[in-house]
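note to self: dont lose this again. the chain is below, predicted strucutre after it. 245 aa total, dont forget to put it in the shared folder this time
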Amino acid sequence: DSAFYKQLLGQRICLEDVKNRDGQIHKSLIILQEENIDDLDLDLTFSAEREIFGKLEETELIPGGKNIKVTEANKEEYIKLISEYYLNANTTEQFKEIMIAFYEMIPSPWLAFIDDKELELLMCGIQSYDLQDWRRHTIYKKGYDPNSLQIIWFWEAVKKMEPQDKARLIQFTTGTSRIPATGFSDLFGSITRQPFCIEKWGKPSHLPRSHTCFNRIDLPPYNSYEELEAKLLIAIHESSGFHEE
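---
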């Protein structure tokens, strides 16, 4: 998952990375992000607990964290720190050995200019996608259907893409370039099966955006095939997508 590759690269982990490790925790943190925490009466502090050999162990996320209450004003810092905690808490000695071996094979200066998505493609290779299966298990929302002009253009653009760009499109929309061995019918979102989705959104001046928890790409109603193709390629190469409930 994205957190694994970010950890290998020494990059910071974010809330979106929690999705692939634990959908329930991710959903809870999204609720914290969207609600006014001062109204929820959760009594959270900047600390976390986990069970180790049957015993609860408390870890402070910042110095003195167990005595610092999480409020609406500081919740973004809490969400960032607790996300890092959940993703790093189970970092094992085996993973540390993997990192040592990884950097023995690939000198760190070579990795300075790639991100986690590029590293995934380098390490896992580019999967072959069945375009018919992909189309068959795609749903459309907010005014789009299989016969919409923009949808016809979208699939034409995908058909013409190089394999690496197809992989980037899957990454952009779902958070990973890998799909289940059984195909797009078993594509998962943050908690359950979630089909690839294209939703009508925005204006032609906008770039496509993604919601990886829902395997959804928001596609503006572009006025020409050339405009759609160009902006789709810009989005998958220069944008990272984001989660939105």
